[in-house]
Amino acid sequence: MRLYNMIFVLLIAVFIASCSKLIVVQEPEMRVLGGKTLIEAQVLGRYRQIDESAYQISTLSSDEDLNLIMVSTNVSDELAQGYKEALIRSMFNQDEINLYKTNYYIGENNGGYLSYIAFDVSKPKTAYSDERIKYIKEIMEKENTDRRTIAEYLILSDPKLSMANIKEVETALYRRNVQKLIENSYYQLPDSSWTVYSNENTNS
After folding, report:
1. What is the largest CA-CA distance in the chain?
2. Every domain of the chain and the residues it spans
3. Cβ atoms of 184 and 102 closer than 8 Å
4. Which top-level group of life is the source organism from (predicted)?
5. Strand, helix or coil at 196?
6. What are the C-alpha distances in Å from 104 to residues 118, 150, 176, 201?
7. Given pLDDT bands bounded at 50, 70 and 90, which one contains residue 42?
8. Is the pTM above the cut of 0.70?
9. Which residues contact 163 (CB under 8 A, 6 or more apart)?
10. Rounded to the nearest 5 degrees, what angle is found at the Cα of 194, between the Cα atoms of 124 and 130?
11. Residue 71 region, left (φ>0) first, then alpha (ψ -120 to 50), else beta?
């Protein structure tokens, strides 16, 4: 009887051990490099490549010139065209967007996009008319749409990524935006508080 009990206990132990192996889920590799995941680091590198070619791209104007922008063959013609147009439009709008940043009407949020912050987070330096404020919000939304288009292109043009990675791509976008901040512009910290960027604070 004692031998039977020992065999029974042993069988139960083996069964539990085998079940534990069956229910173990292998988590995807999430390497961290300097506070960034591997995906964020790779996407940030691709954003840098886009920024480095900004001058050449900003000189393009005609539809024929747009064809000179290199795009991945992994995406549809529609997405490729949308990416090109978003890239050009975003670059041409930067001076105007920076103006409204330094006047404290819009700021860089921690999700990788722009937010309208006037009279809520900030006290604008310049008083604009209702019509101008409406325009500011419109150009801000266009910029956010263009950023989203570029983010989706970066995902869909990479076979290793899917739309499930959108948050990591947007985190990389946020890091890139922080690196490109201009003096006296608002941006949102990871804890959701807002602060004004200053070169003096960065260098101190």
Report:
1. 93
2. 33-203
3. yes
4. Bacteria
5. strand
6. 6, 25, 20, 18
7. confident
8. yes
9. 152, 155, 156
10. 30
11. beta
